[in-house]
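Colleagues,

Please find the record for the two-part complex below.
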Amino acid sequence: MSGARPVLPEARVVVVGAGPSGLAAAAALRHAGVGVVTVLEREQAPGGIPRHTDHLGFGVRDLHRVLRGPVYAARLTAAAAASGADVRCGATVVEVGGDHVVLADGTRLDADAVVLATGIRERPRSARLVPGDRPAGVLTTGAVQQLTALHHRDVGTRAVIVGAEHVSFSAIWSLRHGGCRTVAMVTPLPRHQTYAPLRWLTAGLRRVPVHTGRTVVEIVGRPRVRAVRLDDGTELACDTVVFTGDWVPVHELVRRAGATMVPVSKAPATTSGFHTSITGLFAIGNLVHPAETADVCALDGCRAAVSVLAWLTERRWPQAPLPMAIDDPAGTVAWAAHTSRGVTVRAASFGAGTLELLDGDGEVVGRSRRRRLVPNRSITVGARVGDGVGADTAVVAVRRRG
Amino acid sequence: MVTSAGPTYDVVVVGGGVVGCAVARALSHHRVSVLLLEARNDLGAGTSKANTAILHTGFDATPGSVASRLVARGWHLLRAYAPTAGISIEDTGAVLVAWDDEQAATLPTLQHKAEANGYPHARVIDAAEVRELEPHLGPGVTGGMVVPDEHIIDPWTTPLAFAHEALANGATIETSFDVEGIDVGPEITELRATDGRIRRARFVVNAAGLQGDRLHRAFGLDGFTIRPRRGELIVFDELARPLLQRTVLPVPTSHTKGVLVAPTVFGNVMLGPTADDIDDREATGSTAAGLAALREKGRRILPALLDEEVTAVYAGLRAATEHSDYQLQAHADLRYVVLGGIRSTGLTASMALAEEALSMLAGEGLALEPSAEVVSVRRTPLGERDDRPYRRGGRIVCHCEHVTEAEIVTACSEPLPATDLDGLRRRTRAVTGRCQGFSCWAEITTLTGWDPAR
């Protein structure tokens, strides 16, 4: 897949979203010889979330480097541009299908394939139904990162972080850039859900207490946040509350298109080749698996390019994908989705056990024994599936044993 | 401290909610000088911003009441005015749904009540018809009544459109003027703000909503006490909109219209309100109990709704009193008119209340000669079904609600500008959507120069 061979000079693919997965898909499609690859990005600059995630940790699996988010975003952007993909910013898509997209001003772009890479967002306070006053100072990590990294603004002085997954701890850094000290973290789960070193580097070093097994039951303060109240009655004084993680796919376009969805993750169901249930429409990146790291998303883009190419040349679409069935009476597995690395599984609670991937015949096509299943954390199980159309639907169920 | 009181106005309207703005607009069409005073830093920022956004026919009012007459009249006036002023409105209709036999038995009474209220188009239907109209309703429907003329309306633009029109016709509008004291002289009434500023007028209209009884007492009068009735509301994602075609009403009780599910002109679905009598006139927070109760009711009414994402949660306070009806009084000796206790239908009745206020003022001796020329004002409609600016190009800043940079800049620089996020929300829909600022809040703080934490 290198060198710009004009394999399909007449073909046109539209990619919606210029984050890691969309940019990587566009570059890979161009390198595979697709004539016109148009990337439509609603923001004013390409790069997606890494653009404002100003810390190290990006590019490990795809670029084999450890980069800061903005640097990583710039590299993917440059690679897409160098490949000859047409990346258009400030281009809002309001409707998609397998053979077209419609822009905000009503312009219709026809395409031989459409790749959706619209990404994720964090559930804000309202979506989590946290009661109380509606003061200023209630934010998400995404807003904090953009304020501090892109707009160089200060945020507040004392923050309580809701959540204790990877992004929750990285929010401590972003808040510090905005002149704000984190005074506490709160998670309803019995333990935090990140890697021990990240927890130590962020919360540990600064002695930020993590209130586990606790829920924020009220936000107090008018017109500015004064405190949050926990379910055990504790009041944590603060002027800023940051709701972190609890990712939800930016799924509005794909849902309106009528694609089959995975109810728990609210992502479109896809095959291992990222086909959705709508002929011609692919979905990749964190839209499909909320949320994996950016490098996994970028690798989705590369992998999807293979399926897109197969579609463009063979014009065969696999049987409509269904959400993977979960065989787990204990209820510890929430959902599963294809990624470029195999199948990602989300635990609903802490536990241990063996995860097995099953194909349509009930054969085990992947297995992983886990001593720790951690909620909100990537659990990847490699699957023996091919890229061809026939093999794409190989994994139909996830079984958890013991 | 010497404070300039400025000119003496013919009329001061106290309260920049939907009712006060409607009164100021109506007065501005006449050859009188008008001052509108609002205690908050923005118009329409109290009860008027957090309601169910329905233009009611008044079918369920108490026949013969002032509210019955003015809601019916207000429905006609606002329905005609809205399209001319850029106030989005949708002719969705409503269906009132009975969920047990007892409720079903009251439906014919409700239809008679509607007729007694001068609304002849309500019609009792059976459970099968209800289901045909709204196939996503939960099980257990025992019957219903269609109310074809209930509309949904943009509650944010309505007071702003009134105010802009008043302004264009020469009215003066001051915000952050919290009236504390009243001094009624032989010809001129002085109004003193909490910060000592003084304004003078010949006539005063009290449209102070939740503070209406306090202002009333400042005139040395009594007769009603506001006890706020808090209503919590949950707004669901636009993806829920296909789940219903029209407003789904419950069988009302004497206390409240009950929990309804309604589409909004912004394309969302709204569930609420609760009805809690409280003492704090600023307590617009939501409660765990209220939200849980709404979700339980919602699950019964429209089960699939609960699977959709919640976009916003808020609470509004209705200006309820010990009386069930509006408290309208004219006191000629004080050159004073009060529009009090407008507990939940103020949006619908606003223009009729303005007519009423003007006729009361005229009765007290205010000469109301129509202006030779009246300027009309048209706002940019915010409704999802209207022709919104993003469709004609321009840089979109708020992606969830498709709000352009130009709209945000205009909202912050036009007369009666937005001075905070809440004001911007009501003028443009920015940051009212599903991400609540995840994508756009940083950009908006840069565009507006506001403190990100305000």
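The CA atoms of residues 115 and 282 of chain A lie 5 Å apart.

Comments are welcome before we finalize the supplementary table.
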